[in-house]
């Protein structure tokens, strides 16, 4: 196809140039690429089916993302810097569903043509591109944030903060907008695609400027976020697997009851499942668009039929529907607030950015220990842990006042961290203690929820009135 044929601006001119019959399209001055006139009209059944599908996906996406924004915005415990990324994703998908789906595309599908004119087509393609790229880039930022918290906990100890989160989101907005503006300045164009009921960037015209635009979008708008997501979730999985292995080894050093076998395996499987779900949904949503655009630019264009080019529309618009399911409804606190099934998973490792330390006591009747007893309880637990680690026999109970009474909170936390790493605290090195055969069994389990990096959860198990009571303490 020569350059002149690509610049024809009316269906009649394009048809005359290609010596084919003009199809019945009321284009309102739109540029319909001559490529589409090589194919027969799309049967009404396909248009109506697409209209029903787009309506369902859009309504679900609008309501789902609106619910996510409402709950995250009105629930104080969810208003954290880290969750700003989830809210931004929901807002992006919400706007994407309104502009790209119902009602504009639904009306076009049932009228079997784009009826809103050239300016609306350009705005439709521009806004769809901005918020489509914003969703992609926000997914990458969420992956990077979780990678920092889970795989690099020491560096993540520096609080994210609202200011830093806002700067990151500003970069996402700027980066996403950058790759959608060039068509407004002559680098490509926004034109109808596929069934001619929606508009997107022109990936058919093979001139220098359009090709540069396509390559930039593919490299910086698609490939770069994909590489970030793959890198982050790969290292998240490795970090979780290594963490479970270390906790199992620590439990053996403490000569404690080991509960790691099945739980470690389940944690790794769940982490892998979540990561694979995120990666696969990302690929299913955006690989079709990238593939069609590359084939249209560098491959045989006859492969890009109206039906083939409509596939990216289906998958991309569905992304606005499943994103809230994956990134919001799987959040442990969101499930609790929404009265959904609550289940401990990998998301709890990065909930609330591990800023504060809480005290949680879990009993058979789920009763909480008095807050004023926390210091004495932690001291008793540390003494028992140190005794178990020393491998000596206990002849008498260790008074809670020795050797932890005079510790300040920072020293107490450092001692707990040392024990969690399988080391004996310095102030216990000279302490000679023994353990009775019938003493409490001590186990350590990985910290979840609102913990600073290095904090540990220590569980004791003792017989109380013929029953077994489990208590978990976290350092404050």
Automatic annotation (TrEMBL):
Residues 427-451 are annotated as: Disordered. It comes from the Eukaryota. InterPro entries: GPCR_opsins, GPCR_Rhodpsn, GPCR_Rhodpsn_7TM, Opsin, Retinal_BS. Residues 427-448 have a biased composition (Polar residues). It is a multi-pass membrane protein. Keywords: Chromophore, Disulfide bond, G-protein coupled receptor, Lipoprotein, Membrane, Palmitate, Photoreceptor protein, Receptor, Retinal protein, Sensory transduction, Transducer, Transmembrane, Transmembrane helix. Residues 64-327 form the G-protein coupled receptors family 1 profile domain. PROSITE patterns: G_PROTEIN_RECEP_F1_1, G_PROTEIN_RECEP_F1_2, OPSIN. Belongs to the G-protein coupled receptor 1 family. Opsin subfamily. This is Rhodopsin. It comes from Elysia marginata.
């Amino acid at each position: 196809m020569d350059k002149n044929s690509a610049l024809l601006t009316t269906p009649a001119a394009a048809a005359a140039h290609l010596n084919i019959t003009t199809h019945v399209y009321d284009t309102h001055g739109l540029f319909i690429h001559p490529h589409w006139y090589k194919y027969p009209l799309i049967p009404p059944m396909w248009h109506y089916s697409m209209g029903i599908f787009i309506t369902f996906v859009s309504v679900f996406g609008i309501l789902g993302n609106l619910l996510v924004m409402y709950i995250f915005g009105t629930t104080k415990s969810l208003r954290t810097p880290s969750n700003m990324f989830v809210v931004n994703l929901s807002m992006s998908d919400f706007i994407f569903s309104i502009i790209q789906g119902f009602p504009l595309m639904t009306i076009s599908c049932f009228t079997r043509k784009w009826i809103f004119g050239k300016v609306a087509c350009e705005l439709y393609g521009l806004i769809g591109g901005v918020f489509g790229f914003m969703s992609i880039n926000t997914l990458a930022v969420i992956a990077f944030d979780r990678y920092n918290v889970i795989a690099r906990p020491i560096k993540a100890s520096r609080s994210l903060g609202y200011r830093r989160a806002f700067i990151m989101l500003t970069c996402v907005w700027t980066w996403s907008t950058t790759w959608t503006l060039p068509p407004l300045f002559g680098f490509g164009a926004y034109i109808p695609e596929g069934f001619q009921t929606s508009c997107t960037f022109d990936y058919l015209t093979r001139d220098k400027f359009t090709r540069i635009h396509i390559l930039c979008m593919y490299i910086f708008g698609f490939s770069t976020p994909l590489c970030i997501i793959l890198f982050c979730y790969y290292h998240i999985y490795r970090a979780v697997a290594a963490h479970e292995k270390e906790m199992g080894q620590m439990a053996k050093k403490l000569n404690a009851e080991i509960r790691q076998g099945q739980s470690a395996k389940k944690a790794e499987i769940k982490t892998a499942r979540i990561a694979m779900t995120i990666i696969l949904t990302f690929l299913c949503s955006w690989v079709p668009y990238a593939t069609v655009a590359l084939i249209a630019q560098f491959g045989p264009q006859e492969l890009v039929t109206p039906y083939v080019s409509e596939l990216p529309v289906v998958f991309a618009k569905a992304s606005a529907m499943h994103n809230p399911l994956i990134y919001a409804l799987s959040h442990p606190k969101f499930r609790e607030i929404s009265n959904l099934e609550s289940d401990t998973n990998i998301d709890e490792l990065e909930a609330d950015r591990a800023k504060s330390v809480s005290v949680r006591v879990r009993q058979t009747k789920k009763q909480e220990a008095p807050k004023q007893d926390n210091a004495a309880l932690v001291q008793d637990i540390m003494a028992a842990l140190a005794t178990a680690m020393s491998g000596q026999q206990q002849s008498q109970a260790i008074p809670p006042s020795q050797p932890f009474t005079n510790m300040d909170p920072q020293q107490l936390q450092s001692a707990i961290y040392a024990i969690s790493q399988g080391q004996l605290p310095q102030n216990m090195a000279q302490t000679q203690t023994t353990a009775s055969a019938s003493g409490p069994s001590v186990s350590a389990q990985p910290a979840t929820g609102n913990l600073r990096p290095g904090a540990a959860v220590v569980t004791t198990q003792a017989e109380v009135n013929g029953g077994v009571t489990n208590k978990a303490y976290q350092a404050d």
